[in-house]
Specification:
Largest interface: A-B, 24 and 29 residues
Distance between the termini of chain B: 35 Å
Distance between the termini of chain A: 55 Å
Radius of gyration of chain A: 34 Å
Order of helices and strands of chain B: EEEHEEEHHHEHEHEEHHEEEEEEEEEEH
Strand content of chain A: under 5%
Number of helices of chain B: 9
Strand order of the largest sheet of chain B: 6-7-8-3-9-10
Radius of gyration of chain B: 24 Å
Structural class of chain A: mainly alpha
Shape of chain A: globular
Oligomer: heterodimer
Number of strands of chain A: 0
Helix content of chain A: over 70%
Strand content of chain B: 35-45%
Number of strands of chain B: 20
């Protein structure tokens, strides 16, 4: 005994020593890593990418001091990449604006980023608008230039930059600016450019309106009579020779190029007839129709200066009514005003009311302005100012129609134009800072090159006021971290170099160069760091500081964990299985705990200090508050409704003699496997207030004559309904399972005690089921609250925002937006953790239901005379939530015009299917989805098998830790996981998988691994250990036992588990929306894009295709596992 | 306090005949046990009395009330019977008091009488001090008594017990057996008890109905059916027995594969089967009718269990435990049969002993 104890102590000592050495090694690693990071920081950069850039820059800076700046600007590889990226972004932005020309979307997406510029140009040529190219592109680049700086929390820095720039202007130049401004009034140029700008503006508006229209209406059919009336008026009013200008209207219709060409050759009356025919045939529809009407109205005004006269009032009224019907609330204010004008009412009271209302709700700093507006209204020259004021008021009242200000700008010409524009810019600046760049862009974009610089500088000066030195701008650029630095440098480069963008005067440019040259010493210092004095180790350390630190920290944690694991075992024995556990823990630490932790950290430390400013700013914004309220109300309502539906369904399917129980169970579970957004799309087609099938039916049934309603899916109610129909199966499955497990004699005991079946249900079944009921309800709540697919499709058009849609919206808005998204994500995460805690720790302890030893047949309640009625009711429900939506998707996919019935003349087609499935981007994204989901499912199931085995078959210490982490991961809302990954996986912590397929797979794994693990764990737990033991006793080795006994027994569950991970990954949308890149688009995201931007019928075809694939895979697995596989 | 009359009850699930032509009357105040192997139909019979199953044909009366027939079917809650389930079925979301009080609350009894009655019945089952506990704080035996109290609290005319003791450990089972019997005797209620444990049946019942394959094989007092089993199945199911084939005739029975012939006064002739219970054999080293050799001996404490080879057959012999050392394997011994039963050998033994599940 004594010697044995001695040997034990020797082992203990040896192990401790080994662990100690390992610990020291990891600490050394961390130290080296931190040294590397420090070295990089010292050079002004803190990531490897910036490091490479500065190394290249430094190398060049070393060559010739005189050409430092020039060389820096000569774009070494990394900078070129940055430039390419920015150019790509620019083109993308432009693309978004003109993408209504949906046919060429394919070409654009197919091209790689280098070719896009070419595609873009050809696209612009196609629209026969060379001017657009000249004006929009620089304008957008200007927008890009300012976008980063303009976010609210960076406003001071931005202002400083403005001051710096303005300070460089000599007083003389300021004077000359004023002179030039005066000159400008006289030039025709402004008008010419205004025209160009108006057209590009119109294109944009059209694109926006197109999207809106295609969602809301049957291509704006209500406007057609107005259009016809207008054109007939025009035909009557205009001299025949002038009608050719009227024909130009058709130019608004890109698809009618030929018709347009031929119109010119026709006599006036024939041309008119043709146009009227085109209107009738709906060849001019949607936003083009709106544009057509507007143009026609404007033209008519030329020939009929007294268009406001009584004769034409019906026309204007029609136009107003049509606008109101087509656009809903957004433009109803404008429409009201228009209608008021049509009725020849006094406009002033209306304006006055609007201004007064705005005044009441306006922040203090805007009140002065509004007061003065009211003063103007009350004054005499109302009619002169009318248009502008209306537009300003609308802009103030409805941030999303600020476009009207731009429209106002278009109409301003001649003497006061520039002055007013500048005044408006200032107004806008006061009102709504983020919109400033667009306004600047518009004003600047409309000016001839020569004037542009001076005007811009003037604007900048007006906006800033104070003066400081320019080099501050460069200083601030260097203060940024790597990724941003690249962009900043690029911006500086562009601003000083791009010919179209002579923002800075020659003098400014020189100043800029000077300041960069001053920084050349730092560049050289960086170079020295980069080259590490020729020492390979140092060089590696310097360039890989972050990964080194991360790895060191990870290993440090691992060694510590090993230490505690071994110590708790007292015998200090090492178990190889720990390596498996550590491997899984490491993965979760890096890709789950670190991102979530960093997310929280950024939320409470948005800038340099800890503060809750993110939260207070977030919650002071009305839209966010309503998003929070919507999320909670939506989640709660879906929860209550879903549970109320699920419980009776589960009871009827599980406990009564209703007909077709098995069938119904399959049907309800099927919904569980359908992508949420597919359901949303279907409901959108069914309940669209204008053309939704159900609405149309209801209207004709009840004889309602209004054009819209009675049900509007674009509302909180609609959102709740779709969330409910999608998430009730979660409660259904949970409750059904609990019912199956409940010992039937609990109910029998109640019956024999004298209680009726109903009393038994209420007093015994329900109370015993309560924990499961609550668990199911909570699951519905958290899934509904963190759902993105449904609110993004249902909520967005109806302005019903939820936290998830806000997060994704914010995410697209630069640094400030990212901060805001973080704040919301923390809220969502807190909600999820609370629910996770409640259901996994509080409720789990209250669970009454245990698997009863004997498998007894459940009590079947005889429904007697209720049997048929209830079956019909359930059947009706199944038809309503499953059959109707899916059929709708199918029929939508077979239509040409979604507004017409499927069997309408010439409306039936298979081309949507052939189009969508012959697109290369569809196929490549399908391939992506299959590969990513396959990889995620395979990796996930391997982890699941490992963990399940360790949990069920070993007593190894620490086996619960990965389980806990995986549970936490699956409980986290998708959007939060994705956001965390984005923020932490761009190289900040030494791992950069952003924009790659890995980040998607990692996200899928974290979110869905759990699904597989639950299945495999329960399968293993149901195989009694004695089955394995008896195999081993029979002489089989562990491997043979696994292969011959355990394997075959759990194979169906492994297959099921794989499938359960695969399916949600396959059609995933929420995380993909944030994590995709151009080359890693998935089928879910592609579908979302098609639906939103391209064509609903084509998207429906794709959606139905996805549905078929999911059902097919399900069938294959079902066959493969001989029917043993169930969810 | 009430009788149960079962007329021609047959039950089948689909084409599967569970119980055929059950036609019996359980008398008032009687402790009746339905005994049989699992799947024999005894639980189904009980559940038909309770109202959880509907007979395919036949009628059931409690006292003179028709509760189940082709036309009439009284649901369980209207039958006024008490029942204890194998899994106790104690509701986990109620404490002991509320579990027990449930039948009274359902019947809308006033508060005072509910409390009085519950207290009384908890006293009977010795659970008075546990009234506030929840089921998960009780042992299996205590839960069992809660279930019993709940079944008794409404003072049912008839108490049904469905293998109530099978989930308890051996020691507890034995003591509960007597408690239940005691309670039944004190309350004087009619009890229908279902079990597959013959000892339980013997110890508690006034009458035992031994059922196999849906058919009542034999009914009678425990002693009757043990001492005079009407067929081989009954003999085999109750206690231990060896079946030995033989040839009867001339006042003797010649056992096959031996030279033993037993004196026989019965009227059977030809091929017979002799059922011999091991405890009915006396074994001695000195004297006896049959000579044999001990082949194995097992010490059971209160008994010795031996296998004795007699000619070509092996007989099981049980002696008192204290004489165990006297016989060791290889010993020549002499056996005398105190009692045996003779059946006609119609070749049905194998078939009879096959348990229908």
């Amino acid at each position: 005994m004594k010697t044995l104890a001695g040997a034990d102590r020797a082992i203990e000592r040896r192990t401790q020593t080994a662990l100690g050495i390992l610990l020291l090694l990891t600490i050394a690693m961390i130290a080296l890593g931190i040294y590397g990071i420090q070295a990089l920081n010292h050079s002004g950069f803190d990531d490897a990418k910036g490091f490479g850039f500065i190394r290249d820059a430094g190398r060049m800076a070393g060559r010739n001091a005189d050409e430092d700046a020039a060389l820096l600007y000569s774009l070494p590889a990394n900078a070129q990449q940055a430039v390419q990226g920015a150019v790509d972004t620019t083109i993308r932005a432009l693309w978004q604006r003109v993408r209504y020309a949906g046919e060429t979307a394919q070409d654009f997406a197919r091209a790689d980023s280098l070719k896009r510029q070419g595609v873009m140009q050809s696209l612009l040529r196609e629209t026969q608008n060379a001017d657009l190219q000249r004006s929009v592109r620089p304008a957008l680049e200007a927008l890009l230039l300012m976008r980063e700086e303009i976010a609210a929390d960076e406003m001071p820095a931005y202002e400083k930059l403005l001051k710096d720039v303005a300070a460089l202007l000599p007083a003389a130049e300021a004077q000359s600016l004023r002179v030039r401004l005066a000159d400008l009034k006289k030039t025709e140029a402004a008008a010419v450019h205004a025209d160009i700008r108006r057209r590009s503006r119109a294109l944009f508006e059209e694109a926006v309106a197109e999207r809106r229209l295609s969602r809301f209406t049957d291509g704006g059919a209500g406007l057609i009579p107005v259009a016809k009336a207008l054109f007939e008026e025009l035909h009557a009013a205009a001299p025949a020779a002038d009608l050719s200008s009227a024909f130009e209207l058709v130019k608004q219709v890109p698809r009618q190029q030929e018709a347009y060409a031929s119109l010119f050759g026709l006599p006036a009356h024939e041309g008119t007839r043709k146009i009227l025919a085109m209107l009738d045939a709906k060849e001019i529809a949607g936003a083009r129709l709106v544009a057509f009407n507007k143009e026609a109205y404007a033209l008519l005004k030329q020939y009929h200066p007294d268009i406001n006269s009584v004769d034409h009032l019906p026309l204007i009224a029609m136009q107003a009514e049509a606008m109101k019907a087509e656009f809903g609330d957004t433009l109803s204010r404008q429409a009201d005003l228009l209608a008021a004008r049509a009725r020849n009412d006094r406009l002033s009271p209306l304006l006055h009311d609007a201004a007064a209302a705005a005044l009441l709700s306006a922040p203090r700093e805007k009140r002065a302005l509004l007061s003065s507006l009211i003063a103007v209204i009350e004054g005499k020259d109302v009619h002169v100012q009318e248009d502008g004021l209306v537009n300003q008021l609308i802009a103030q009242r409805d941030a999303e129609t600020a476009g009207s200000i731009e429209r106002y700008l278009e109409n301003l010409q001649g003497e006061s134009a520039l002055k007013t524009k500048l005044m408006l810019l200032q107004t806008l600046y006061v009102f709504d800072a983020p919109r400033l760049p667009a306004a600047v862009q518009d004003v600047v974009g409309s000016l001839p090159d020569a004037e542009r610089n001076t005007l811009r500088l003037d604007i900048l000066r007006r906006l800033s006021g104070a003066h400081a030195a320019l080099p501050g701008a460069v200083e601030s650029a260097f203060a940024k971290d790597g990724a941003e630095l690249n962009e900043q440098l690029f911006h500086l480069f562009l601003t000083s170099r791009t010919p179209q963008l002579h923002v800075f005067s020659e003098e400014t440019d020189t100043g800029l160069r000077l300041s960069i040259r001053q920084n050349a010493s730092r560049v050289r210092a960086a170079q020295a760091v980069a080259q590490g004095g020729g020492n390979a180790l140092l060089q590696t350390v310097n360039s890989h500081g972050k990964p080194l630190t991360l790895l060191g920290a990870l290993l440090f944690i691992n060694v510590l964990m090993l230490f505690f694991l071994m110590r708790s075992g007292r015998d200090w024995r090492f178990d190889v299985k720990w390596l498996l556990i550590l491997l899984i823990v490491d993965f979760m630490l890096v890709f789950q705990i670190l991102p979530l932790g960093y997310l929280l950290f950024k939320a409470i430390k948005p800038g340099d200090t800890f503060s809750f400013v993110t939260f207070s700013r977030l919650f002071s914004y009305n839209m966010n508050r309503s998003a929070l309220v919507n999320t909670i109300i939506g989640g709660l309502a879906a929860m209550v409704l879903g549970t109320l539906i699920a419980f009776p369904l589960a009871w009827m399917v599980g406990r009564t003699n209703m007909y077709g129980k098995k069938f119904f169970r399959h049907v309800f579970v099927l919904t569980y496997m359908v992508p949420p957004y597919v359901g949303a799309m279907a409901w959108l087609r069914l309940l669209n207030p204008n053309v939704g099938t159900i609405n149309v039916l209801l209207r004709s049934f009840f004889g309602i004559t209004e054009a819209a309603g009675p049900i509007n899916v674009y509302s909180l109610g609609g959102l709740v309904w779709v969330l409910t129909t999608f998430y009730y199966p979660y409660a259904f499955i949970t409750i059904s399972r609990a019912m199956e497990k409940m010992d039937p004699s609990l109910e029998e005991a109640s019956r024999i005690s004298g209680a009726s079946p109903f009393t038994t249900l209420m007093r015994v079944t329900l109370p015993i089921m309560t924990p499961s009921l609550i668990a199911g309800a909570l699951l519905v709540f958290v899934s509904a609250a963190s759902c993105y697919g449904i609110p993004s499709i249902i909520g967005a058009p109806g302005r019903v925002h939820t936290v998830t849609t806000r997060i994704i919206e914010y995410y697209g808005r630069g640094t400030q937006g990212l901060n805001d998204a973080t704040g919301l994500a923390v809220f969502l995460m807190a909600l999820a953790i609370l629910i996770l805690y409640l259901s996994d720790f509080v409720l789990a302890k209250k669970q009454y239901i245990t698997v009863s030893g004997k498998s007894t047949r459940p009590n079947i309640v005889d429904l007697r005379s209720w049997r048929w009625p209830l079956t019909l009711l359930v059947g009706l429900f199944a038809v309503m939530v499953v059959l109707v939506p899916f059929t709708t998707i199918l029929t939508t996919s077979l239509k040409i015009d979604v507004g017409k019935p499927l069997m309408a003349e010439g409306n039936f087609t298979f081309t949507q299917w052939s189009t969508i499935f012959s697109r290369s981007e569809t196929m490549s994204s399908l391939q992506n989805s299959l590969v990513y989901a396959g990889v995620a499912a395979t990796a996930g199931i391997l982890v699941a098998i490992t963990m399940s085995y360790l949990m069920q078959r070993t007593r190894i210490r620490g086996r619960r830790l990965p389980d806990f982490l995986i549970t936490l991961g699956s409980g986290s809302p998708s959007v939060v996981i994705a956001l965390g990954l984005i923020m932490s996986m761009q190289g900040r912590f030494g791992v950069n998988i952003y924009n790659t397929a890995y980040i998607l797979i990692v996200a899928y794994l974290i979110k869905y691994m759990m699904m597989g693990m639950r299945t495999v764990t329960s399968a293993i737990s149901q195989i009694h250990i004695s089955l394995e033991e008896s195999s081993q006793v029979s002489g089989a080795s562990w491997v043979t036992t696994m292969r011959r006994v355990t394997g075959p027994l759990i194979f169906p569950s492994i297959a099921a588990g794989w499938f359960l991970i695969f399916i949600p990954c396959f059609y995933e949308l929420s995380m993909t929306t944030l994590l995709y890149s151009n080359t890693t688009k998935t089928i879910g995201f592609q579908l979302y894009e098609y639906w939103t931007y391209t064509s609903q019928p084509q998207a429906s075809a794709l959606a139905f295709g996805i549905l078929l694939i999911v059902i097919l895979i399900n069938q294959v697995f079902s066959r493969l596992t001989k029917g043993e596989f169930t969810i | 306090m009430s009788s149960v009359t079962i007329r021609q009850v047959t039950k089948s699930f689909g084409s599967n005949l569970i119980l055929s032509n059950f036609d019996e009357t359980f008398k008032d105040g009687e402790f009746v046990t339905l005994l049989g192997p699992s799947g024999c139909g005894k639980t189904t019979m009980l559940r038909m009395i309770a109202g959880f199953e509907k007979p395919t044909t036949g009628e059931i009366y409690i006292d003179d009330t028709l509760i189940s027939s082709d036309k009439v079917f009284l649901p369980p809650e209207k039958r006024g019977v008490g029942m204890v389930f194998q899994s106790y079925a104690v509701w986990p979301h109620m404490d002991v008091f509320h579990n027990v009080a449930y039948p009274l609350t359902i019947a809308k009894k006033d508060r005072a009488s509910v409390e009085r009655k519950v207290a009384h019945v908890l006293d009977i089952v010795h659970l008075s001090q546990y009234a506030k506990r929840y089921p998960n704080q009780l042992s299996g035996g205590q839960q069992q008594r809660v279930a019993l109290a709940r079944a008794l609290v409404a003072e049912p005319k008839l108490l049904l017990l469905d293998e109530p003791l099978s989930n308890l450990d051996a020691k507890l089972r034995e003591s509960m057996r007597f408690e239940i019997k005691e309670i039944q005797r004190n309350l004087g209620i009619t009890v229908v008890y279902v079990t597959h444990d013959q000892t339980e049946a013997m110890a508690m019942s006034d009458r035992v109905f031994l059922i196999n394959r849906g058919v009542v094989q034999q009914k009678g007092s425990p002693e009757e059916i043990y001492r005079q089993p009407v067929n081989q199945f009954v003999a085999d199911f109750l206690g231990k027995v060896d079946f030995i084939k033989g040839e009867a005739g001339g006042g003797r029975i010649l056992l096959h594969h031996t030279e033993v012939s037993l004196p026989y006064a019965g009227d059977k002739t030809g091929a017979v089967e002799v059922a011999i219970r091991p405890e009915n054999i006396t074994m001695s080293k000195e004297t006896g009718d049959i000579e044999g050799t001990v082949t194995a001996g097992y010490y059971l404490g209160d008994a010795g269990d031996y296998r004795v080879a007699v000619g070509g057959i092996s007989l099981r012999v049980i002696t008192e435990g204290r004489v165990f050392r006297e016989f060791t394997p290889g010993d020549k011994v002499f056996l005398s049969l105190d009692d045996f039963i003779v059946y006609d050998d119609d070749g049905s033994l194998e078939e009879q002993l096959k348990i229908n599940t």
